[in-house]
Amino acid sequence: MVRLPERRRALRFPVALADTGSPGARTPLLRVHGVSKTFAGTKALDNVSFDLHRGEILAVVGQNGSGKSTLVKILAGVHKADPGARINVLNNGGRDARHDALRALLHFIHQDLGLIELLSTTENLDLARPLGIRDLLPGRRRGEHDRAAALVRRTGAVIDVRSPIFLLSPAERTIVALARAMDGWESPGGVLVLDEPTASFHSNEVEHLFAAVRRVAKAGAGVLFISHRLDEIRAIADRVIVLRDGRAVLEVDVAGADDATLVRAIVGGNPGGHRPAESEALGEVRLAVTGLVGQRLRGLSLEVRSGEIVGVSGVLGSGREELGPRLFGAVPRMAGTVEVDGTPVRSGNAVDAIGAGMGYVPADRARQGAALLMNARENLTLAGLRSVQRRFGWIPRRAERDEAARWARRVDLRPVDPERPLSQFSGGNQQKVILAKWLRTEPNVLVLDEPTAGVDVGAKAAIYQLLRDATQRGMAVLVNSSDTKELAELCDRVLVLDRGRQVAVLQGAELSEEALLRASLDTSTERVEA
Predict the structure, then answer these.
(1) 292 Cβ contact list (under 8 Å, min separation 6)
(2) For the segment 162-199, what is each residue's pLDDT rounded down to a tens digit?
(3) pTM score
(4) Domain map of the chain by residue range?
(5) Pick the CATH number of 6-267 from 3.40.50.300, 3.10.129.10, 3.40.1390.10, 3.20.20.70
């Protein structure tokens, strides 16, 4: 018989504990009071306060940039809150747990699960706990597998703990992370924080995780559930808090608020306008996508015409994030066709896409869109060197400088210094350089992921104007963004994705920020499977 270390023998998983009550008991477990966080003069959180009760599942919703991730990072100790904030876990009869005890009572499942895919469930669970000399003996291997399987079974799931993590479904991986987070709990007085746990799930996988989370809450723990999906919140949460611009603008029982109330709170007073579509100015189809299949995309088809800006919206896990890379060939398609002006673009071949007339601005400009150690001139000409090359590949420095200076003025680069390393420009000016890099190649189709993420208001307006000018010259533009206000203001048409499929198309008078958010959050199973 394998004996666990003394601390582990005291292990109690919440499922095995007695039911200590329901949300109706209103016993505070986590108390967050006056939490603010300022980054470079900008308040990401502004005086947020709430209580999480024993046995309760509390949902936190809000758009990207509302402060949800900052709140999670403060609870996890990644960020330090501004002075005056108090975060307490009340346990053992209401006594205040602080410092190390506070961290021991807070357990997290982040969007990035932190699992090592080449290792098995057993090995991943072992990495999360201290090992002694006896744990290194070969004879203990079977006992470790048995222990891991028992931890997983207590969540209500059955998983082959010997298989590598990469063979598991997204739901099974999250179950493993849940088992790891709960390992070592010695009382039900802990708090489980789940940050967008179902982002990569298919609809039939969600209930497996929810069943496990309900077991945790029923045993007396508190659960903080971060999600974009209103249907999930209604299915699992008791209360919901809406964050907007860093502030808690609504706190209500889930049963007492309809979707319209929640959407209005999430969006705010001004839902934003749209750019009227000029149908008569639209030309022939330039980008044609048919039956595109990816890790999350499930047979997506779309068209973008000359002179048109088409947006793509959807919450995290909708498939929106992988659309751009698969169109451009940075990531191979699993199925489907992509054509630019009737020319097929081979799967997984970015050179083919460029040759067909496609440009691509990725979401992560630092790692994928630019060479930060090179100067602005070198970045500006990188995608179209042939236009300044001479015989034998020679690049006359003066011609390259003149070309870079012309484009720096055209995109209003500040400062207008193409010789300056790109890393020394602001985020908005870096994005101008990356956009100019593709615009100077005069592509037929330009695909952009999160084109104004992390840029200031002035740079955002300049980027919008550059894109509108490009469509006046006949370019087709596809904008993939999590910013519903941006899509409503910039686009002629917006496609809404959910779980890999198109579920709505908004244009004309019906295109607004509130309508986009409602379409993204209204994710009923019937509509998704239609």
Answers:
(1) 299, 300, 301, 323, 326, 327, 333, 335, 336, 337, 338
(2) 889 888 877 788 888 888 877 766 555 688 898 888 76
(3) 0.64
(4) 6-267, 270-357+443-530, 370-442
(5) 3.40.50.300
